[in-house]
Design goal:
Blueprint lengths: L1 E4 L2 H21 L2 H7 L4 H7 L3 E6 L8 E8 L8 E10 L6 E9 L2 E9 H6 L10 E10 L6 E10 L4 E10 L1
Helix pairs in contact: 2-3
Length: 174
């Protein structure tokens, strides 16, 4: 079993773009806060702030990685709370390099689209290519942001020939 850490800067690029747009939207109006201020009691406010969060594989049957599992811990982190994203997968052969395409949307509007070098992202966390053949576990930690609406984010990995390795993503809505 191999353990890699996805560097926070990789994931943070997606979050930074989302937060920039979300800050403008929230500054103009935050309906959850407005409603919560007019409802009596903490339980009502907490119910209004509930969120649904799903993390999953978005890969296809032809991807090189198999047995892809994506787990968010805790399963539904609250705003300001730390989370850990764990990505488990199996590779049939070592992967010497590739790229990661990051995309994100807020309420259906694209807010982030960037490509990064896979090995550079891994090396930023103290790991290096190649990714080993066999089972791999990658973890990433971060802090959950409080954003009104629906955030969808994906990271698609490809090898140096452009062949799809895997895809993982998450959706958060409140």
């Amino acid at each position: 079993q191999h353990l890699y850490l996805i560097p926070s800067p990789s994931i943070m690029r997606v979050f930074a773009a989302i937060l920039a747009l979300a800050s403008m939207v929230i500054a103009a109006a935050n309906p959850i806060a407005a409603i919560a201020n007019n409802v009596q009691g903490a339980p009502a406010g907490n119910a209004l702030r509930s969120r649904r969060l799903t993390a999953s594989s978005c890969g296809k049957s032809g991807d090189l990685a198999t047995n892809v599992q994506v787990v968010m811990t805790p399963a539904a982190p609250k705003a300001g709370e730390d989370y850990t994203l764990t990505l488990d997968f199996d590779l049939p052969a070592a992967v010497a390099g590739g790229s990661v395409k990051y995309t994100a949307s807020l309420n259906g509007l694209p807010v982030y689209n960037d490509t990064a070098d896979l090995c550079t992202d891994l090396s930023n966390s103290g790991n290096s290519c190649p990714l080993a053949a066999g089972h791999n576990t990658i973890t990433s930690t971060g802090k959950m942001y409080d954003v009104s609406g629906t955030i969808k984010s994906k990271a698609k990995w490809t090898d140096t020939s452009g062949a799809a390795l895997l895809c993982w993503g998450f959706e958060q809505s409140n």
